[in-house]
Amino acid sequence: MVVKSRIAALINHLQQGLLERDTPARLALLAALSGEHLLLLGPPGTAKSELARRLHTLVDDSRYFERLLTRFSVPEELFGPLSIKALEQDRYLRQTKGYLPEAAIAFIDEIFKANSAILNSLLTLLNERQFDNGSERLGVPLISVIAASNELPDGAELNALYDRFLLRFQVAPIQDDSFTALLTLNHDYQEPPTELRLSNDDLTAIRDGAEQLPLADALIRLLHSLRTFLAEQEISVSDRRWRKVVKLLKVSAFCNNEPEAGLFDTWLLPHCLWQQPDQFERLNDWLHRHIAADPGFSPELITELVDSWQQRLEQDADPVLPALNEQGYQLYLDEQGQPVTEARGQRPRRNASGDLLYRQPRLPDASFTADEIRNLGGNLDQYQPLLESYQRPTALQPKAWPAAHIASRLRQLDERIDELTHYLGWLGQQLHGLAERLRQHLWLEQELATQAQRQLERQQQQLDQQRERLQQLRRDFSALPVEG
User: Which residues are in the AAA+ ATPase domain (predicted)?
Assistant: First the structure.
């Protein structure tokens, strides 16, 4: 059985001596582990073929195939020449030994130069792992193909081929910071020892084990959020591609000895979902903001929720004030909160914001002042005769509510508090020993790992504050007057 330490050793072998190629190296190995294919897009001389040659040394099956396509390439270059002896017997067979149908790992350069004579057989071989040789359809031992191109496909007939490459990476020449290291590089690639190499049984065990892993609830919510983001960005992703992405997420988690595919496995998503290279940065920025932030419990969402409960409390605790209509009749509110006056049919007076000027008093004590009348939008001349007859309360009393209303409010608050407490418990488990777990993570780059840890710590602090607000709101609702 393949263990995490073994995969880590293979990653180190794949990366040794390659400058700024850590990510495509991990993607190449992940493609082989999951039975998918990798497309490297970029100029010549950027170690694309070197990566494929190294990958084939990581597996027991040493059959390797490499070919550069041109617009004039013929099927014989990929699938083998026709058998003369078979033709003499009126059979159309190819001699496939040493060609793509019998390779375990393959590198195809300038993949999008494939013409229609090659395309159909290539699509079937990549996707179904089958090859039509004469009248027979045969299974092939292909583990993974790494393809390279200087440009994106041009023409609708190549879109299906482009879609066969679940993982995509744009390779660029090394940066200035690594240029001196490139000039002084003196490193010969050392193949891994035989005991480290992956057998077909190892690959089958990985894929079967990964298939059994569940998806974390937080991961499912993040994928829903990502799908919405992709729609906003007008990036189309097929249902088949989503299913393949889930398989990759599970393989990533399984090799890292995780019990479920979770948020940290989403490091690979930007490399699976872009159609045009300029879309990658938008996807990568989105991932950096959300890799550790469960969209169902984001601080922004929970803050909005708590703010809405604060508004409900203010409405329920709103004090009752005297109300008059335009003719000076006292205004009352019915059971539905609608204005009812002693003179039916009269419209109650409202201020510029549309609020009722007054509501019915409960504890009259002293007269309203002229300034208060003006502040509430009233007409001083109209209300002057009434100032002495209408009194103000010394302490405004809130409305009394039916017991069922308060119980409903408290029940809903308890549900929100319980949900948030449960999530904070999960978050605490994630943060326990997180720095060491991230340091030993097989796939995460250090920059992304640091970003994830900061997000989780900030999220925990902000959600703790919102839980305290919810608990205070519950106490405040409990203190509201109840009828009877």
Answer: 34-175
